[in-house]
Amino acid sequence: MNGTWKRVFRGHVMMPMFNIKKVSQLREKSLLYVTLVLVILNVFAFSMKTSVAQSEAVIYVSPDMNSAAPGESFDIKVNIKHAENVYSWQFCLSWDPTVLEVQDVQEGFFLNQRIYKTIFHAFVDNDAGNLTVVCVLKGEPRSSSARGDGTLATVTFYVKDTGYTALHLYDTMVLDYDILELPHTSEHGIFQYGARIPILRVDLPTVADPLTPGSTLDANITIVDVANLYSWMICLSWDPTVLNATNIQEGPFLSQEGAQTTAFDVTYPEAGTVCVNCTLVDDPIVTAGGNGTLATIIFSVEHYGDTILDLHNTTLLDNNLMEILHLSEDGYFTNVMGDIAVKSIEASIYNVTVGDTVSITVTVENEGNVAENFDVLVWANITRLRTIPVADLASGDQKTLTLDWNTQNIAEGRYVVKAEADILPHETDPEDNTLVMDDVIQATAQREAQFPTTLIIATVAIIVPLAIILFYFTRRKRSPKT
Ligand SMILES: [Ca+2]
Ligand SMILES: [Ca+2]
């Protein structure tokens, strides 16, 4: 379980088509006309296929999770990212009108870029709990089209009561100068205060040791805090090289342990994905509430590896076949035990004369259960001598690394040498990744040719008396005889 919170409504895309001639008048006509045209066009909008752009634009509510006490206000931004050539835009937003009402809607700077003229209008219906906001560049040239990321509008909500609601974006439109639709997706927000949103999640068993290939893993799809559940649908995707779904069984929750009749259906759209739906079929209609297990997916572990168990396309319906707002939480499976260890580090010589080349030998071992790629850094005090890459070291294998340290430019002194292997993303034992050499390396400077003081003293000691003796001897020889 990785604690990732995802919203329920994902990838909701509207691709309306409309009369280009009519919309092309937008740039000249009055504010009311513009907004009416957009709204009317939207009523008659229908879906069309579009090719997916390389980096498709996204319109999204920010922040995605919101909370404030009754009586308080809070702001959300409706932002756009990865946009290109935007000349006008529209979005609709809905919420539960018993929980929130809109106080204000302000234009963001995305389209006007703080310099261009725009027509901006917001229609708010606090009784129904929705608003429509439109914005178009007003008589500006094609080159003024907006791109990149920015804020379309800021919406201020007032909290009327405790509860929760989706801040649901729909009927979003992004148009270029030629009134051509720009493909995009939208992502919704959630408000929650003093009430718990149902959570759909993947529950995996806690195991003491990693599951070896061949073992079985039971993943439960569970629901928490749901009321009036009548029908549910989920898809789950994972890495099929790591796990293989061998069986899917209905959980006891919706049938209330068999007291109610259900229809349970499983499909496998592609390798590594399963979609499951389950509906109550009793007449008169019954529902289930509270917490429980919807389904159990039995996996066999294929290999060492890790994978997210991604819950998507989840839908919960109540007895009126209305969607139940919920959060979903993915699972995460791993049986990888990463553990690199530096086993030894030695030098060819420890008493070094500056200028010597010292050969350093490092032995590393993969004590984990999968092959690893990593770097080993060798240090002398605070200087990095070398980074040695190790590629694809198999589980249980050792590798000896050597490097020649040229000490030509180092200062005299003590050198503490150590080897440091990368901490793997899934490292289970980081302590043994660093090893310091047992002995320090002592570097001394080369002896320069010494001034021969002793020799000079000795020479002086011999030569001076000799000279004196010679001097007196000579004088005596020269003195005349009397
Ligand atoms: Ca380790
Ligand atoms: Ca270890």
Question: Could you please describe the fold and organization of this structure?
Answer:
There is one protein chain. With 482 residues, this protein is mainly β. It has helices at residues 20-24, 31-43, 453-478, and strands at residues 5-6, 57-62, 65-66, 73-86, 88-94, 100-107, 118-125, 130-137, 146-159, 163-175, 184-187, 189-193, 199-203, 216-229, 231-237, 243-250, 262-270, 273-280, 288-301, 306-317, 327-329, 331-334, 340-347, 351-353, 357-366, 372-380, 383-393, 398-406, 413-415, 417-421, 434-436, 441-444. 9% of the residues lie in helices and 50% in strands. The protein has a six-stranded mixed beta sheet with strand order 1-21-13-14-19-16, with no helix packed on it. A six-stranded mixed beta sheet has the order 3-12-10-5-8-7, covered by helices on one side. The relative contact order is 0.11. Residues 1-53 have low confidence and may be disordered.
Which architecture name of the largest domain does CATH use? Sandwich
Number of strands: 32
Radius of gyration: 39 Å
The CATH class of the largest domain, by name, is Mainly Beta
**Percent of residues in helices:** under 10%
Number of domains: 3
Structural class: mainly beta
By DSSP (H or I, 4+ residues per run), the number of helices equals: 3
Instruction: Tell me the span between the first and last alpha carbons.
Output: 127 Å
How would you write the strand order of the largest sheet?
A: 1-21-13-14-19-16
The shape, in one word, is: elongated
Instruction: Point out poorly predicted stretches.
Output: 1-53
Portion in beta strands: over 45%
